[in-house]
């Protein structure tokens, strides 16, 4: 009954906010964050491509839609900071300016590595301290150990659950249905 009192333009926002408050694992969560419009993206994605994501974690991470699907899945588990950190490190390694290197390193450290960081990743004390020292004199490899630990964590823990998730199985079903 309360929904009837909400103006029509606010219903969409209410629905989106409702999705955030529930740990959901649905196909709709994936389509909401696709890099392209969902229908266009699904037309471009073949069953063969989506099936290859199960070959290896790195194949999944190297595919635009695989990355989007995995991100959507991690959001349902409230652990998307792991992927965001890994992507920030990948971007950091492409930095060519020494001036930008130091500021980017500090930003990544403060956002993901520092104790009580807003999007703190789960790494051990030794790795955190090594990374803290590395950031004092940043190089393109200063996050390598931390990034490797987070990659390993996602590969061993989140990735197998993603392959069993409703997001992934629904996506495969959608691409197969298109062929029928």
Automatic annotation (TrEMBL):
Protein name: Regulator of G-protein signaling 8
The UniProt record lists the keyword Transferase: no
Membrane protein topology class: Peripheral membrane protein
Pfam families, per database record: RGS
CDD domains listed in its UniProt record: RGS_RGS8
Keywords: Cell membrane, Cell projection, Membrane, Nucleus, Signal transduction inhibitor
Keyword Nucleus included in the entry's annotation: yes
Location within or outside the cell: Cell membrane; Cell projection, Dendrite; Nucleus; Perikaryon
GO cellular component, one term: nucleus
Domain RGS residue range list: 56-172
One GO biological process term: negative regulation of signal transduction
Predominant location: membrane
């Amino acid at each position: 009954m309360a929904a009837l009192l909400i103006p029509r333009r606010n219903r969409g926002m209410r629905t989106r906010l409702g999705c955030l408050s529930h740990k959901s694992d649905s196909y709709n969560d994936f389509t909401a964050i696709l890099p392209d419009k969902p229908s266009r993206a699904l037309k471009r994605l073949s069953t063969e491509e989506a099936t290859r994501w199960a070959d290896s974690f790195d194949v999944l991470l190297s595919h635009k839609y695989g990355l989007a699907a995995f991100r959507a899945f991690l959001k349902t588990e409230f652990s998307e900071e792991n992927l965001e950190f890994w992507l920030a490190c990948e971007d950091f390694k492409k930095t060519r300016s020494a001036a930008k290197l130091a500021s980017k390193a500090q930003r990544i450290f403060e956002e993901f590595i520092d104790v009580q960081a807003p999007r703190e990743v789960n790494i051990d004390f030794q790795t955190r301290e090594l990374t803290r020292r590395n950031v004092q004199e940043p190089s393109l490899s200063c996050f390598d150990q931390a990034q490797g630990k987070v990659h390993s964590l996602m590969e061993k823990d989140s990735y197998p659950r993603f392959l069993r998730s409703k997001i992934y199985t629904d996506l495969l079903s959608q691409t197969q249905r298109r062929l029928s």
